[in-house]
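Researcher: Hi, I'm a grad student and pretty new to this. My advisor asked me to get structures for two proteins we've been looking at. I'm not sure of the right format, so I'll just paste the first sequence and hope you can take it from there.
Model: That works fine. Here's the first sequence with its structure tokens right after it:
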Amino acid sequence: MHRTIITFGEIMLRLATPEHQRFSQTTSFCASFGGGEANVAVSLAKFGLDAEFVTRLPNNDLGNSVIMELKKHGVDTVFKDAYWFHWTGITPSISKGAAIVCQEAITAAKKRGIVISCDLNFRKNLWRWGESASEVMPGLVSDCDIILGNEEDAEKIFGLKPDNVNVFRGEVNGASYESVCRKLKKMFPRAKKIIITLRGSVSADHNTWSGVLYDGKVLYEAPVYQITHIVDRVGGGDSFMAGLIYGLLTYPNDDQKALNFAAAASCLKHTIHGDFNLVTVAEVEQLMKGDTSGRVIR
């Protein structure tokens, strides 16, 4: 069955210093493109699915470079034949105009019976145009079938938080988030699945990583990964979302396996520089089987 996933949002040019230098130290930057929605599209394309990204770009060399980079990774830039539509909370945070267009896209997708997913992705420094996330997001999220957020998004946007959780000690218990999932489900009854990624910070380069999925009745918990020697954690949540979409489409009757695929895929992303998760399905499945050796499979 031909299934195209559309993601919608902005893309950014990311400038990173080499060798973890400060901006005041470096004389050169590593340039790469990235952004929540584009990251999801690239991951899905790497998993072999049809992924397309909708955005707005300047008509110049920089805009053309974005298109070339996305197409290099198998992502198209045409909004048609959609089966799944994905957006994130970053888009409506940018401006009132962006929020309005996001609502228009969600409404159009709903009318066509397209599956709608969102990553809450709260960014406090972006909500500067006059309305807050708590004012804008409920209306947008209410039409979503799949809602994903990290361990803090629900609190920052909707005021929902679990008890006795300290993410700064690496103490993130998946079961503690069942109450948050239940409350989100009550707020957004259309949602079929609520997912929360769980990151515990042991140190700057050592995190625990997992997630939970609530289907309205059962809370599924992913394995907890100990990620040490992190290369780049940017895009971790996006790679989880892409893995989840792939998992839900590939294992439609097995939410536990879909969640496990998402957790494993995003765990591997932490070993890759840049925003994009460039791992294959085979690599993710190998980690799901318990192989954490890092050996090349020939």
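Researcher: Oh nice, that was easy. Here's the second one.
Model: And its structure:
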Amino acid sequence: MKYSELVGDTRVDPLQTVKQITSLFDAEDKFVVVGMRQARITTGQNVFSQTVVAKEFVEQLSGPGAVDLLEGLSTGPDGANLDLYFSVATVDGDVPLNRRGEIDAIKNVKCAYVDLDVKRGSFESQEDAMAYLRKLPQPTLITLSGSGGVHGFWRFTEPLDADSAAEVQRSWYALLTERAEPIFIDRLIDASRVMRLAGGVRYPKAGESRLPAVSTVHWRNRNNRYDPAKLLEWSAAAAERAEEKIKATRTREKQQRTAAPVCIEGDGDWASILRIASIEETLNALLTWDEILCPSGWTFLRTDRVGRREWARPGSGSKSASTDYPGSPDILSLHSWSPDTGLSDLKEANIPLSKSRLAQRFLFADDYQKMVDWVLAQ
């Protein structure tokens, strides 16, 4: 099947890609271009990566074969649609063809970034997202994602290593999300992040009524550069407030758990730990993931090839979490930061999302004592 038969009149735009790459990278930088299946498969390859040098990639995208190059990157070996992304970090060496790029492959990071979605719980329109961005320091680059969303990038005056970049991004995110409240902004803080490649086609997800659309560059000023130390200074107070919220969540968690009734005799820390473990292990055996998640609007999607079960959060048809990991069947791995999960505060505080903790949240309205009483009654 030809590429044109998949996307109709929607065509890739190499000029948009060139504008993005030349705004965020220097000529000799190596980064990763990633094609991801929009419709994931359980057997076969879902990710197709290629390590490129910025100067060489720009030259190819400025030549006569530019459209064919981008269309080729946008199509899998079996003709499947691939959404195109790029790593915000530069890399050393080549990334494996079936990987997005990992933290240990990063050389440095050259920008901070934000993803502003237009959807329920986030911005109501692209114009609202733009109005929000105008209240912030002017980005180096603004792109339109093709889904109605907006991506902003603030280029650093000097590149940072992965750990330093994550520190800046975490602090910057605290400021961005505080200024946007109550609107939800995706929590993007990792240095190995990939963002949508301008010029590529954004394909509609299952159930969407949208047509395929090209991600485009809306604004750029390559002279806009920001000292990372200044970004940290501007966001320090918001980052401190965010950390206090996390500490408060952890404190509440500890206070609830230590209030377990005496079902195992003895005093001291070890007796308390045994009492808690006894309650939680009993609940894990009594309830299934379906009994915990489904009443709260979660939807079971599929079982993958290694036996993990994939779930969609309320209001979504895409994978938001996985359960039944081999060796850890009673722990949920949450892939989404959306408040619609009902778990984002626990995820941010690094509280294990066990069956018992999710049952406490979803079935007992966060009342630990009520959950304990129910377990003992069984």
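Researcher: Is there anything I should tell my advisor about the second?
Model: You could mention this: The chain has a mean pLDDT of 88.
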